Protein backbone atom coordinates (compact mmCIF):
# COMPACT_ATOMS: atom_id res chain seq x y z
CA UNK A 1 0.00 0.00 0.00
CA UNK A 2 2.80 2.34 0.81
CA UNK A 3 4.42 1.61 -2.53
CA UNK A 4 1.21 2.34 -4.38
CA UNK A 5 0.76 5.61 -2.55
CA UNK A 6 4.33 6.56 -3.21
CA UNK A 7 4.17 5.68 -6.91
CA UNK A 8 1.05 7.69 -7.71
CA UNK A 9 2.71 11.12 -7.65
CA UNK A 10 5.50 9.75 -9.80
CA UNK A 11 3.00 8.42 -12.33
CA UNK A 12 1.21 11.75 -12.33
CA UNK A 13 4.43 13.64 -12.92
CA UNK A 14 5.21 11.44 -15.94
CA UNK A 15 2.30 12.89 -17.91
CA UNK A 16 3.47 14.99 -20.87
CA UNK A 17 0.92 17.76 -20.22
CA UNK A 18 2.07 18.13 -16.62
CA UNK A 19 5.71 18.20 -17.62
CA UNK A 20 5.12 20.83 -20.33
CA UNK A 21 2.95 22.93 -18.04
CA UNK A 22 5.57 22.83 -15.30
CA UNK A 23 8.17 23.84 -17.88
CA UNK A 24 6.39 27.19 -18.28
CA UNK A 25 8.11 29.71 -15.96
CA UNK A 26 4.84 31.30 -14.89
CA UNK A 27 3.22 27.99 -13.98
CA UNK A 28 6.35 26.80 -12.22
CA UNK A 29 6.56 29.99 -10.15
CA UNK A 30 2.87 29.78 -9.22
CA UNK A 31 3.16 26.10 -8.23
CA UNK A 32 6.24 26.89 -6.19
CA UNK A 33 4.49 29.68 -4.30
CA UNK A 34 1.41 27.52 -3.67
CA UNK A 35 3.63 24.62 -2.49
CA UNK A 36 5.55 26.87 -0.13
CA UNK A 37 2.32 28.24 1.33
CA UNK A 38 0.93 24.69 1.70
CA UNK A 39 4.10 23.58 3.47
CA UNK A 40 3.92 26.51 5.92
CA UNK A 41 0.27 25.81 6.70
CA UNK A 42 0.96 22.10 7.12
CA UNK A 43 3.85 22.68 9.48
CA UNK A 44 2.06 25.35 11.54
CA UNK A 45 0.46 22.78 13.88
CA UNK A 46 0.72 19.07 14.46
CA UNK A 47 -3.05 18.62 14.09
CA UNK A 48 -2.99 20.32 10.68
CA UNK A 49 -0.07 18.17 9.61
CA UNK A 50 -1.94 14.99 10.61
CA UNK A 51 -5.16 16.06 8.85
CA UNK A 52 -3.41 17.08 5.64
CA UNK A 53 -1.20 13.97 5.59
CA UNK A 54 -4.29 11.78 5.97
CA UNK A 55 -5.99 13.66 3.11
CA UNK A 56 -2.90 13.23 0.91
CA UNK A 57 -2.85 9.51 1.62
CA UNK A 58 -6.55 9.18 0.79
CA UNK A 59 -6.17 11.05 -2.49
CA UNK A 60 -3.11 9.01 -3.46
CA UNK A 61 -4.94 5.76 -2.64
CA UNK A 62 -7.94 6.81 -4.72
CA UNK A 63 -5.73 7.78 -7.66
CA UNK A 64 -3.80 4.50 -7.50
CA UNK A 65 -7.03 2.49 -7.34
CA UNK A 66 -8.60 4.32 -10.30
CA UNK A 67 -5.41 4.37 -12.41
CA UNK A 68 -6.06 1.04 -14.30
CA UNK A 69 -9.57 2.14 -15.26
CA UNK A 70 -8.69 5.66 -16.49
CA UNK A 71 -5.33 4.92 -18.08
CA UNK A 72 -6.45 5.05 -21.74
CA UNK A 73 -8.75 8.16 -21.42
CA UNK A 74 -6.05 9.85 -19.37
CA UNK A 75 -3.46 9.14 -22.04
CA UNK A 76 -5.69 10.60 -24.78
CA UNK A 77 -6.45 13.67 -22.71
CA UNK A 78 -2.77 14.04 -21.87
CA UNK A 79 -1.85 14.06 -25.56
CA UNK A 80 -4.49 16.68 -26.38
CA UNK A 81 -3.47 18.97 -23.46
CA UNK A 82 0.19 18.64 -24.46
CA UNK A 83 -0.70 19.63 -28.05
CA UNK A 84 -2.65 22.65 -26.78
CA UNK A 85 0.30 23.76 -24.62
CA UNK A 86 2.64 23.44 -27.61
CA UNK A 87 0.28 25.48 -29.78
CA UNK A 88 0.00 28.11 -27.06
CA UNK A 89 3.80 28.35 -26.89
CA UNK A 90 3.99 28.89 -30.66
CA UNK A 91 1.22 31.49 -30.84
CA UNK A 92 2.11 33.36 -27.64
CA UNK A 93 5.87 33.09 -27.18
CA UNK A 94 5.75 35.37 -24.17
CA UNK A 95 4.41 32.52 -22.00
CA UNK A 96 7.90 30.98 -22.16
CA UNK A 97 9.44 34.06 -20.54
CA UNK A 98 10.02 34.70 -16.87
CA UNK A 99 7.18 36.34 -14.87
CA UNK A 100 9.10 39.60 -14.46
CA UNK A 101 9.67 39.81 -18.21
CA UNK A 102 5.97 39.09 -18.84
CA UNK A 103 4.88 41.83 -16.42
CA UNK A 104 7.28 44.38 -17.89
CA UNK A 105 6.34 43.52 -21.47
CA UNK A 106 2.63 43.75 -20.68
CA UNK A 107 3.19 47.09 -18.97
CA UNK A 108 5.07 48.47 -21.95
CA UNK A 109 2.39 47.23 -24.34
CA UNK A 110 -0.38 48.87 -22.32
CA UNK A 111 1.56 52.12 -22.11
CA UNK A 112 2.22 52.02 -25.84
CA UNK A 113 -1.51 51.57 -26.51
CA UNK A 114 -2.67 54.24 -24.08
CA UNK A 115 0.06 56.83 -24.50
CA UNK A 116 -1.32 58.30 -27.79
CA UNK A 117 -4.74 58.85 -26.22
CA UNK A 118 -3.20 60.23 -23.03
CA UNK A 119 -1.00 62.56 -25.07
CA UNK A 120 -4.03 63.78 -26.98
CA UNK A 121 -5.83 64.51 -23.72
CA UNK A 122 -2.82 66.40 -22.34
CA UNK A 123 -2.40 68.36 -25.58
CA UNK A 124 -6.09 69.29 -25.61
CA UNK A 125 -5.90 70.32 -21.97
CA UNK A 126 -2.82 72.45 -22.57
CA UNK A 127 -4.47 74.09 -25.58
CA UNK A 128 -7.62 74.82 -23.56
CA UNK A 129 -5.57 76.31 -20.72
CA UNK A 130 -3.62 78.44 -23.19
CA UNK A 131 -6.87 79.60 -24.80
CA UNK A 132 -8.37 80.46 -21.42
CA UNK A 133 -5.20 82.28 -20.43
CA UNK A 134 -5.21 84.25 -23.68
CA UNK A 135 -8.89 85.10 -23.25
CA UNK A 136 -8.25 86.17 -19.67
CA UNK A 137 -5.38 88.40 -20.72
CA UNK A 138 -7.49 89.89 -23.52
CA UNK A 139 -10.40 90.56 -21.16
CA UNK A 140 -8.03 92.07 -18.61
CA UNK A 141 -6.50 94.31 -21.24
CA UNK A 142 -9.96 95.41 -22.41
CA UNK A 143 -10.97 96.18 -18.82
CA UNK A 144 -7.83 98.25 -18.28
CA UNK A 145 -8.46 100.08 -21.54
CA UNK A 146 -12.02 100.90 -20.49
CA UNK A 147 -10.97 102.01 -17.02
CA UNK A 148 -8.30 104.26 -18.54
CA UNK A 149 -10.91 106.42 -20.27
CA UNK A 150 -12.58 109.45 -18.66
CA UNK A 151 -15.72 107.53 -17.72
CA UNK A 152 -13.61 104.63 -16.46
CA UNK A 153 -11.62 106.99 -14.24
CA UNK A 154 -14.85 108.36 -12.82
CA UNK A 155 -16.08 104.86 -12.11
CA UNK A 156 -12.74 103.99 -10.54
CA UNK A 157 -12.85 107.05 -8.28
CA UNK A 158 -16.46 106.17 -7.38
CA UNK A 159 -15.39 102.67 -6.35
CA UNK A 160 -12.56 104.05 -4.20
CA UNK A 161 -14.82 106.65 -2.60
CA UNK A 162 -17.51 104.02 -1.94
CA UNK A 163 -14.95 101.70 -0.38
CA UNK A 164 -13.68 104.47 1.90
CA UNK A 165 -17.25 105.36 2.93
CA UNK A 166 -18.06 101.70 3.57
CA UNK A 167 -14.95 101.37 5.73
CA UNK A 168 -16.07 104.39 7.76
CA UNK A 169 -19.49 102.80 8.26
CA UNK A 170 -17.86 99.56 9.32
CA UNK A 171 -15.67 101.43 11.81
CA UNK A 172 -18.77 103.16 13.20
CA UNK A 173 -21.27 100.30 13.37
CA UNK A 174 -18.96 97.25 13.43
CA UNK A 175 -15.78 98.33 15.19
CA UNK A 176 -13.00 95.76 15.45
CA UNK A 177 -13.33 93.65 18.60
CA UNK A 178 -9.59 93.17 18.85
CA UNK A 179 -6.68 94.60 16.91
CA UNK A 180 -6.75 92.96 13.52
CA UNK A 181 -5.00 93.95 10.31
CA UNK A 182 -7.68 95.19 7.94
CA UNK A 183 -5.23 95.59 5.08
CA UNK A 184 -4.81 92.26 3.41
CA UNK A 185 -1.70 92.73 1.34
CA UNK A 186 -0.82 95.74 -0.70
CA UNK A 187 -3.24 97.12 -3.25
CA UNK A 188 -1.83 97.88 -6.67
CA UNK A 189 -1.95 101.52 -7.66
CA UNK A 190 -4.72 102.53 -10.02
CA UNK A 191 -2.26 103.99 -12.50
CA UNK A 192 -0.41 100.69 -12.90
CA UNK A 193 -3.37 98.28 -13.22
CA UNK A 194 -6.87 99.79 -12.83
CA UNK A 195 -8.70 96.44 -13.09
CA UNK A 196 -6.51 94.74 -10.49
CA UNK A 197 -6.82 97.80 -8.23
CA UNK A 198 -10.63 97.60 -8.40
CA UNK A 199 -10.70 93.85 -7.75
CA UNK A 200 -8.33 94.13 -4.78
CA UNK A 201 -10.28 97.05 -3.31
CA UNK A 202 -13.60 95.21 -3.46
CA UNK A 203 -12.02 91.99 -2.20
CA UNK A 204 -10.43 93.70 0.78
CA UNK A 205 -13.73 95.39 1.67
CA UNK A 206 -15.58 92.07 1.51
CA UNK A 207 -12.96 90.30 3.63
CA UNK A 208 -12.93 93.05 6.27
CA UNK A 209 -16.74 93.13 6.44
CA UNK A 210 -16.97 89.35 6.85
CA UNK A 211 -14.27 89.34 9.54
CA UNK A 212 -15.94 92.19 11.43
CA UNK A 213 -19.38 90.54 11.33
CA UNK A 214 -18.14 87.18 12.63
CA UNK A 215 -15.87 88.78 15.23
CA UNK A 216 -18.68 90.94 16.63
CA UNK A 217 -21.10 88.00 16.62
CA UNK A 218 -18.60 85.80 18.47
CA UNK A 219 -17.92 88.59 20.97
CA UNK A 220 -21.64 89.04 21.68
CA UNK A 221 -22.15 85.30 22.13
CA UNK A 222 -19.18 85.10 24.50
CA UNK A 223 -20.53 88.09 26.43
CA UNK A 224 -23.92 86.42 26.81
CA UNK A 225 -22.30 83.19 27.96
CA UNK A 226 -20.17 85.10 30.46
CA UNK A 227 -23.37 86.63 31.92
CA UNK A 228 -25.00 83.23 32.26
CA UNK A 229 -27.17 83.44 29.13
CA UNK A 230 -26.76 80.39 26.96
CA UNK A 231 -27.58 81.11 23.32
CA UNK A 232 -29.25 78.21 21.60
CA UNK A 233 -28.52 78.71 17.92
CA UNK A 234 -31.21 76.26 16.83
CA UNK A 235 -33.94 77.98 18.84
CA UNK A 236 -32.72 81.38 17.68
CA UNK A 237 -32.90 80.36 14.01
CA UNK A 238 -36.32 78.77 14.56
CA UNK A 239 -37.67 81.94 16.18
CA UNK A 240 -36.14 84.08 13.42
CA UNK A 241 -37.77 81.96 10.71
CA UNK A 242 -41.10 82.11 12.56
CA UNK A 243 -40.87 85.91 12.78
CA UNK A 244 -40.07 86.17 9.08
CA UNK A 245 -42.98 83.85 8.23
CA UNK A 246 -45.35 85.88 10.43
CA UNK A 247 -44.24 89.14 8.80
CA UNK A 248 -44.78 87.61 5.35
CA UNK A 249 -48.24 86.32 6.19
CA UNK A 250 -49.24 89.67 7.74
CA UNK A 251 -48.03 91.58 4.70
CA UNK A 252 -49.93 89.28 2.36
CA UNK A 253 -53.10 89.65 4.44
CA UNK A 254 -52.85 93.45 4.43
CA UNK A 255 -52.27 93.46 0.70
CA UNK A 256 -55.32 91.23 0.22
CA UNK A 257 -57.50 93.51 2.36
CA UNK A 258 -56.29 96.58 0.47
CA UNK A 259 -57.15 94.96 -2.86
CA UNK A 260 -60.61 94.02 -1.52
CA UNK A 261 -61.29 97.61 -0.44
CA UNK A 262 -60.20 98.90 -3.82
CA UNK A 263 -62.56 96.49 -5.61
CA UNK A 264 -65.66 97.57 -3.55
CA UNK A 265 -68.03 100.08 -5.42
CA UNK A 266 -68.15 103.51 -3.86
CA UNK A 267 -71.65 104.97 -2.97
CA UNK A 268 -73.00 107.66 -5.39
CA UNK A 269 -73.90 111.23 -4.27
CA UNK A 270 -77.49 111.46 -2.83
CA UNK A 271 -80.13 113.16 -5.10
CA UNK A 272 -81.94 116.26 -3.71
CA UNK A 273 -85.39 115.46 -2.22
CA UNK A 274 -88.62 117.20 -3.21
CA UNK A 275 -89.18 118.71 0.24
CA UNK A 276 -85.74 120.16 0.36
CA UNK A 277 -85.77 123.92 0.69
CA UNK A 278 -84.17 125.82 -2.16
CA UNK A 279 -80.88 127.34 -1.45
CA UNK A 280 -81.04 131.06 -0.57
CA UNK A 281 -80.18 133.29 -3.47
CA UNK A 282 -77.78 136.10 -3.01
CA UNK A 283 -79.15 139.58 -3.65
CA UNK A 284 -78.16 140.94 -7.00
CA UNK A 285 -77.43 144.58 -7.81
CA UNK A 286 -80.53 146.70 -8.79
CA UNK A 287 -81.09 147.24 -12.47
CA UNK A 288 -81.24 150.69 -14.17
CA UNK A 289 -85.07 150.67 -14.43
CA UNK A 290 -85.40 150.00 -10.74
CA UNK A 291 -83.05 152.83 -9.98
CA UNK A 292 -85.04 155.23 -12.22
CA UNK A 293 -88.42 154.30 -10.69
CA UNK A 294 -87.10 154.79 -7.24
CA UNK A 295 -86.01 158.42 -7.91
CA UNK A 296 -88.30 161.41 -6.98
CA UNK A 297 -88.55 162.62 -10.57
CA UNK A 298 -89.98 159.36 -11.69
CA UNK A 299 -92.56 159.47 -8.89
CA UNK A 300 -93.62 163.02 -9.87
CA UNK A 301 -94.00 162.29 -13.58
CA UNK A 302 -96.06 159.22 -13.14
CA UNK A 303 -99.50 160.97 -12.49
CA UNK A 304 -99.05 163.24 -15.47
CA UNK A 305 -98.60 160.34 -17.70
CA UNK A 306 -101.75 158.82 -16.36
CA UNK A 307 -103.75 162.05 -17.04
CA UNK A 308 -102.67 162.22 -20.58
Characterise the protein shown here:
The protein has 308 residues and is mainly alpha-helical. Helices cover 76% and strands 0% of the residues. Helix 2 packs parallel to helix 5. It is elongated and about 115 Å long.
In short:
The chain has about 300 residues and is mainly α.
How are the elements arranged and paired?
Elements: H1 2-13, H2 16-23, H3 25-42, H4 46-66, H5 71-91, H6 99-147, H7 150-173, H8 194-226, H9 233-263, H10 288-293, H11 296-307
C-alpha end-to-end distance: 193 Å
Count of extended strands: 0
What is the general shape? Answer: elongated
Helicity level: over 70%
* Unreliable residue runs: 1-10, 299-308
Rg over CA atoms, rounded to whole Å, is: 56 Å
Percent strand equals: under 5%
Multimeric organization: single chain
Biggest sheet, in brief? Answer: none
Average predicted confidence as pLDDT: 75
Task: Report the structural category.
Answer: mainly alpha
Count of helix runs:
11
**Order of helix and strand elements from N to C terminus:** HHHHHHHHHHH
Amino acid sequence: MAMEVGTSPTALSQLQSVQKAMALPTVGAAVGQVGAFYTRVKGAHSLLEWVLSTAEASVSLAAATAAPYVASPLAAGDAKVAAVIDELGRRVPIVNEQPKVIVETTKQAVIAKLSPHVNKVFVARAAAEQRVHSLKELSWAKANALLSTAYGQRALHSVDAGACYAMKLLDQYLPPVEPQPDHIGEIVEAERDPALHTVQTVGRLSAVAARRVWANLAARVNHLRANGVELDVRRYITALLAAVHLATVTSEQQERERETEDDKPRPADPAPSAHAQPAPTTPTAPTTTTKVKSTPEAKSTKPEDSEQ
